[in-house]
């Protein structure tokens, strides 16, 4: 295992120990492992420590980490791939990383996962990270900006699953489900 993935495993192990009593963190940690595989080590095509492709919507994650609602929205949105595909194939509806929020970025730093409040069966899990430090042309405030993603976790069929993700640090209405629904509504 490359040493950066080993570092992620240690990071997640420490996070897991701190919040072991919070099952809502488990599906988020799987997505964080993809974030780290994509951005943490500069190794495109990497896999997560458990061998899952570094794709937020790989079949193993889509059917095991996300709610049925998000999985259905993704499958509909995938009918409108961001890039050309052959025949009637589906593909990623995103031409950017929807979770980290960009096409360009630096290795993730100060990555943290913390369980939040539970209200009406929905638990917020907050993920924070820095991903602009390597851009020397940016001012210090931009380089040190802490990005925040709020994962909304629910229980489906006895398992904790991600039912949405707030994707904007300042706009709680900018969610993964909203973006997927907008793409799915595009004309064919």
From TrEMBL:
<protein>
    <recommendedName>
        <fullName>DUF3828 domain-containing protein</fullName>
    </recommendedName>
</protein>
<feature type="signal peptide">
    <location>
        <begin position="1"/>
        <end position="20"/>
    </location>
</feature>
<keyword id="KW-0732">Signal</keyword>
């Amino acid at each position: 295992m490359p040493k950066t993935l080993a570092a992620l495993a240690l990071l997640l192990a420490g996070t897991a120990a701190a919040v072991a009593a919070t099952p809502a963190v488990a599906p988020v940690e799987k997505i964080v492992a993809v974030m780290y595989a994509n951005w943490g080590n500069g190794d495109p095509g990497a896999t997560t420590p458990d061998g899952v492709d570094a794709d937020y919507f790989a079949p193993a994650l889509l059917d095991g980490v996300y709610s049925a609602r998000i999985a259905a929205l993704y499958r509909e949105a995938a009918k409108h791939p961001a890039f050309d595909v052959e025949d009637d194939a589906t593909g990623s509806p995103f031409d950017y990383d929807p979770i980290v929020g960009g096409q360009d970025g630096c290795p993730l730093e100060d990555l943290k996962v913390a369980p939040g409040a539970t209200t009406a069966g929905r638990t917020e899990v907050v993920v924070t990270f820095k991903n602009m430090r390597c851009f020397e042309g940016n001012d210090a405030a931009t380089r040190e900006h802490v990005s925040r993603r709020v994962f909304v976790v629910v229980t489906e069929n006895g398992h904790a699953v991600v039912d949405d993700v707030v994707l904007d640090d300042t706009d709680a209405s900018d969610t993964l489900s909203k973006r997927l629904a907008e793409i799915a509504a595009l004309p064919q």
